[in-house]
Amino acid sequence: MRVPLNWLKEYVELELGPSELADKLTNAGLEVSSVEHLDRGLQGVVTGEIVSLAPHPSSDHLLVAQIDLGRLGKRQVVTGAPNVARGQKVAVALPGASPPNLGPVREVRLRGIVSEAVVCSAWELGLEGHRQEEGILVFPPSTPVGEPVATHLGLDDTVLEIDVTPNRADCLGLVNLAREVAAITGGKLRLPRPELPTASEPASAYASVVVEATDLCPRYVAVVIRGLELGPSPEWMQHRLRAAGMRPINNVVDITNYVMLELGQPLHAFDYERIEGHKIIVRRAREGERLRTLDGVERQLTPEMLVIADAERAIALAGIMGGEETEINDRTTWVLLESASFSGANIRRSARALGMRSEASLRFERGVDPELAPLAARRAAALMAELAQGEVLDGFLDVDHRTAVAVSVDLSVKRTNALLGVELSREEIKGCLERLGLDCREEGENLKVNIPSYRADLRLPEDLVEEVGRLYGYERIPAVFPPVIGAEPKQNPKQEFLSRSRHLLADLGFREVLTYSFISPRSLELLKAGPGHPWASTLALRNPLGEEQSVMRPTLVPGLLQTAASNAAWGSGAFRFFELGKVFLPREPGGLPEEEWRLGALVGGEDPKEWNRPARPLDFFYLKGVLERFLAFWGLSEGLEFASGPEWAALHPGRRCRVLYGGEEMGWLAELHPGVLEDFSLPDRVCLLELTLEKIFAVAVEVRRRYRPWARYPAVARDIAVLVPEAVTHAQVRQAITRYGGDLLRGVRLFDVYRGGSVPEGYKSLAYRMVFQSEDHTLTEKEVSTVCERIVGGLEEEVGARLRS
After folding, report:
1. What is the pLDDT of residues 630-656, one digit of tens each?
2. Would 656 disulfide with which of 45, 435, 498, 651, CB 3.0-4.6 Å?
3. What confidence tens digit (pLDDT) does each residue in 291-340 have?
4. How many helices and strands in the chain, by DSSP H and E?
5. Which residues pair with 647 in a beta bridge?
6. CB-based burial of residue 609 (10 Å sphere; 0-12 exposed, 13-18 middle, 19+ buried)?
7. Which of 556, 555, 579, 577 shows the shortest CA–CA distance to 566?
């Protein structure tokens, strides 16, 4: 909101400079975003009268003028302005002045003649709405000479741009802003008290008001004024309106805008003689109803919108903009003046639906005090009587459907001090609130505060505490650390599980990625997720940002693949990515989805060769090792199994498996099918896994890692090769070896798989290296052999294995 200080000073005594006032308002919660001096560049520019004009002796287009500057004497000016004439009152820039579009002025010699000043155009002075090619600015003949041009143009003013917060709608009127300034500075408040001469004839004989939508219009005040003489507003009013950012139109319209800026109450003037039946009806718009507004646009209305209508049609959009058919024009002599209170929520919805914002809607959206309606009507009617010679008919047409409720708040002195962190007496608190115009009554050690209608933002004790704080001065409140209460918050077990999982994968060389929860259905089509596939059923968004983000993800795979494709396009070589995030699985129709935490990981490319190791492909078995390390960290090594599947077309048929623990499926691990790699523009081979973290968390056992000394006794290694049927998996053999190896078995590793040759058809040879060690003695050959025999016997019994000869 633009606040001209000269206008503000009409309502409050003000001795502070603009910058100091801006600082005080900002510290009190009314942020001043800028301070604009309207006379910037106009110092040293004065009015003068051209008393003589003669041709330049050495030029055919220049003239030499003698200009009377009153108390400043006379100046000789050489000018080439096409519209200059003797007797004109003009703007003269003296040496040292620097008008905005002219620059520094100095005394110069032109073709041998001294020019002691410059006669200026409106464009050179920086006045809005003027062009460079226009001639010099000419003032009316009655203009006094020697007067600063800024004063004559009403530009000897400073404007504060205040960012009014949504809860302080009252400060969108200069009078209430003056209350704030008076409370902050201690200046005396001077509120306007309009005196309204009225005619003997009653307004009710000429007009009537009916409010049908009482829920959207609690109060409507109408005034009838006749005998108006339309014309320009007085200069002082035009100057104030321009400084506040509004364009003067005519005296009637300007008065409605002036009072709106002054009191914060929007007004509208209808041409009384163009109101059918001279009847105002406040109602909801009818289905299909249309209205051409003052901006010349025909609007399609809906029944949710509030309109002002006459006996036949809608004539205004309530609280937003008037209609073209009842607009004030040069022939208007009778006016019906509207001052009303409308529902802020309804005005906001209507303005948004129509794409319209106005100064009126801005105020109604934030809330206008219903008590302002008759006061603003009286103030505007008095100005129309004074400035437009109007005759105000007796009696306001005031339709009031409100139920008056007095608002009072009990304020505890002890709690006020506790919240602010200060020690104020009851009298000091009372003094702060009374400076704001609040009526306070002492009740024991506390206060009962009556809230005026214009402060709709004050409803709770904490609201009043804030008022005390800003009036006392935030800068005076000591800065101290609050007492620490209770212990530092900790993560719950599930949060800790997720956090440690992230750190573990990062330690294993993976980089975490975060992808959108919304994906494209096309990405699931590329993954061959047809009917019956677990990913085929998705949850579609009602208002998606676009097709690329139109369904909620049932898997983390699309986001990981797109991230890998983006990195591969930049030639990033090997990549290891993981994501911990939620997937969204549809439930019953119309219900909320089931949200499930998943871990997705993806590897591809090849680790380059280094001086101490060869190049290493990031393949299926590499990712399987990472998976085993991850599950081992959570104590899930025993009981871990890998089974064939899943049978999805997007996965490589020979490199895929399901991950089981205790017989329950935890997820899957696979290499991507070459055809899918091509669809996602991915090179070489890519392997990925997805685990259901909810299931892992339910059975995870945190492994307590303790440091222990190095074994003092040597380890013994034994290799065995067994023949097993093709259907027997490595996991089954390894589990059997572990079970029968007992406490002496320290490790087991598969180092060879062989088929053909001497191996019978339908069988395969698996070779294992087993490491045995004791913590308290050196193992003997007999002890090791006994354990090996037990292992071989167990393998024969459990999986039908036999030693390969």
Report:
1. 999 998 887 788 888 899 999 999 899
2. 651
3. 999 999 999 999 999 999 999 999 999 999 999 999 999 999 999 999 99
4. 20, 43
5. none
6. exposed
7. 577
